[in-house]
Amino acid sequence: MIYFKKFTTDDIPQLIKWINAGSEEDMFLWSGITFTFPIDEKQLLHYAGESDAEIYSIWSSDHKPCGHAALRKIDTYHRSARIGKLFIAPEYRGLGITPIILQKLLYHSFSVMNLNRVGLGVFADNERALSIYRRFGFHIDGRLRDYRRINDRYIDLIEMSVLYREFTNRCRSV
């Protein structure tokens, strides 16, 4: 099992280590245009200070950091938010943590924060993520063609969302 903790400055060195161990492309696929490579403390302090976000470090049951996630662009008037910056530590990939994180984020969004809509953006070639998001009731809202250039190739961005009324019983029973 995993649990969430509020992201603090104590979590910054671990996130820097994870992100900078990969490539610039890896970081871009994780963060979009939010950060520049290599990521540093100044960028993460700015990110951590976002007033319309809940940012989490994710911990394993044996109390080791295993990932990162955020609910951003929280709009209480329109009752919406975006899931973003979902990252699984390399040693925890392939263990089924992403669906657990999504389940917890959606439960929190709909049952605790009383949101109506949760959206996200995912690059079109990330079939694994697209499949997981569809399992949780996300629908494609649109496709931004040639959204970003990565290593001399363009990549589309898929915008997806799930509404409270579409929220599955599986997600509600966390």
TrEMBL record:
What protein name does the entry list?
GNAT family N-acetyltransferase
In alphabetical order, the GO MF annotations are: acyltransferase activity, transferring groups other than amino-acyl groups
What sequence ranges are listed for the domain N-acetyltransferase?
A: 2-165
Record-linked CDD domains: NAT_SF (cd04301)
Q: Which InterPro entries match?
A: Acyl_CoA_acyltransferase, GNAT_dom
Whether Transferase counts among this entry's keywords is yes
Q: Which intervals of the chain form a coiled coil? A: none
Keywords (A to Z) from UniProt: Transferase
Pfam (any one): Acetyltransf_1
Name the species this protein comes from.
Answer: Alkalicoccus saliphilus
